């Protein structure tokens, strides 16, 4: 009887473990458009920190625009809000690997309280978020990061 | 020994519901509303303490004001002064499941720290949402509906049409969102493009879309 209970307990322990079958992280590349100076960089740092805090659920790659500029079209729209798949498509592809789940380009300017971001999660289009006249404190930036993460999951497949 | 094993097993089964992070990226939507709350139709409104938003921890009233009947017309419906206005723009009637979920939003807005009135969007509000979520900001910026003048904050959300056919229709979730702080004609927040389909329950989850509203209401 005790043996039966041990087997049952083992089975339950196995079943109780968090389901991870088929799991994989959301693979994000976050790019600082670099228009906000030092304050803008700190702003993007905060957003990136939110993603890092998601642990193994988010695999984050951080880049400055200058580092990836060569992969982008010669002429870019002034505002990231006007970016389309055409601008970010080359960044999503990876040699010998699946494409990244999403490219996120952030133009954060805390001094003038503006935050623009384009999220390219699929070849089917982009999502843009635009914030104005709101102080970009930690709470707001964490909230924005969460909205970005939700948008980045569009079209996510295991 | 046997009793101990059974105890462990029961504890583990109970813990299983907690789970780890969502494997598919679907966010958890813990409700702050009460499922047993009185039924409130989608166009109902709740009274709001005008001071709400200036202090997230301030005490608030839970008084219920008369329902606002959106009716068949698409006129812009009024909301009580000093109340956050949550406008839902949808081209087809909400599914029953969406109405139930919306009731939880209404209930939460009636009881919680954050209070607001939920209304069906009029034609003018639908046009405004479309103008601001079509791409780059419209030039010139369109004026705000007169009914918004007394609202400290207006949240306009598109409810996407359901997919599938009767009787197996599935909610299309929530789409484009714009937040205004009248009388400024430029929205403080605009979200457009592709959407993963947020839900009504997602709006009121602990870190959901509406969680930032008290901060937005503080003003410049």
Instruction: Write out the strand line-up for the largest beta sheet of chain A, numbering strands in chain order.
Output: 2-1-3-4-5
Distance between the first and last residues' Cα of chain A = 42 Å
Largest interface: A-B, 52 and 41 residues
Strand order of the largest sheet of chain B: 2-1-3-4-5
- Give helix and strand order of chain B, one letter per element, not per position: HEHEHEEEHH
Question: Which SSEs are present, and which pair or pack?
Answer:
The complex is a heterodimer of chains A (158) and B (220).
Chain A: H1 2-16, E1 26-32, H2 37-52, E2 58-64, H3 65-68, H4 85-92, E3 102-109, E4 114-122, E5 125-132, H5 138-152
Parallel strand pairs in A: 1-2, 1-3
Antiparallel strand pairs in A: 3-4, 4-5
Helix pairs in contact in A: 2-5
Chain B: H1 2-16, E1 84-89, H2 96-111, E2 116-120, H3 123-133, E3 154-159, E4 174-180, E5 189-193, H4 200-203, H5 213-217
Parallel strand pairs in B: 1-2, 1-3
Antiparallel strand pairs in B: 3-4, 4-5
Describe the structure.
The complex is a heterodimer of chains A (158) and B (220). Chain A is α/β, with parallel strands linked by helices and 158 residues long. Chain A has one domain: Maf protein. In chain A, 37% of the residues lie in helices and 25% in strands. Chain A has five helices and five strands; from the N terminus they run αβαβααβββα. The termini of chain A are far apart. Chain B has 220 residues and is of the alpha/beta class. Chain B has one domain. Helix content of chain B is 23%, strand content 13%. In chain B, strand 1, helix 2 (96-111) and strand 2 (116-120) form a beta-alpha-beta unit. Chain B is globular and about 45 Å long. The termini of chain B are far apart. Mean pLDDT of chain B is 73; it is low at 4-71. Strand 5 of chain A pairs antiparallel with strand 5 of chain B.
């Amino acid at each position: 009887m005790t043996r039966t209970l041990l087997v049952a307990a083992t089975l339950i322990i196995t079943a109780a473990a968090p389901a991870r079958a088929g799991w994989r992280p959301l693979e994000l590349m976050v790019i600082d458009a670099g228009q906000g100076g030092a304050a803008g960089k700190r702003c993007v740092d905060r957003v990136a920190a939110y993603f890092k805090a998601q642990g193994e659920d988010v695999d984050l790659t951080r880049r400055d625009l200058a580092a990836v500029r060569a992969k982008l079209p010669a002429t870019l729209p002034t505002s990231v809000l006007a970016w389309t798949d055409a601008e970010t498509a080359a960044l999503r592809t990876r040699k010998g690997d699946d494409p990244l789940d999403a490219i996120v380009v952030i133009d954060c300017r805390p001094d003038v309280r503006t935050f623009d971001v384009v999220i390219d999660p699929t070849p089917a289009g982009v999502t843009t978020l635009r914030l104005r006249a709101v102080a970009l404190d930690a709470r707001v930036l964490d909230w924005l990061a969460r909205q970005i993460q939700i948008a980045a999951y569009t079209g996510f497949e295991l | 020994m046997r009793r101990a094993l059974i105890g462990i097993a029961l504890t583990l089964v109970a813990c299983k519901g907690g789970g780890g992070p969502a494997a598919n990226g679907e966010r958890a939507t813990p409700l702050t509303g009460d499922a047993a709350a009185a039924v409130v139709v989608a166009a109902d409104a709740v009274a709001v303490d005008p001071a709400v938003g200036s202090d997230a921890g301030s005490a608030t009233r839970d008084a219920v004001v008369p329902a606002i009947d959106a009716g068949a017309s698409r006129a812009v419906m009024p909301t009580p002064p000093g109340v956050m206005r949550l406008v839902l723009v949808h081209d087809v009637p909400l599914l029953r499941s969406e109405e139930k979920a919306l009731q939880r939003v209404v209930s939460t807005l009636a009881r919680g720290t954050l209070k607001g009135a939920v209304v069906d969007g009029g034609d003018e509000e639908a046009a405004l949402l479309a103008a601001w979520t079509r791409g780059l900001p419209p030039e010139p910026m369109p004026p705000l509906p007169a009914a918004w003048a007394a609202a400290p904050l207006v949240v306009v959300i598109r409810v996407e049409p359901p997919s599938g056919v009767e009787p197996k229709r599935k909610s299309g979730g929530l789409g484009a969102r714009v937040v205004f702080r009248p009388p400024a004609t430029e929205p403080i927040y605009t979200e457009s493009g592709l959407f993963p389909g947020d839900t009504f329950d997602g709006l009121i989850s602990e870190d959901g879309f509406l969680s930032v509203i008290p901060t937005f209401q503080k003003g410049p």
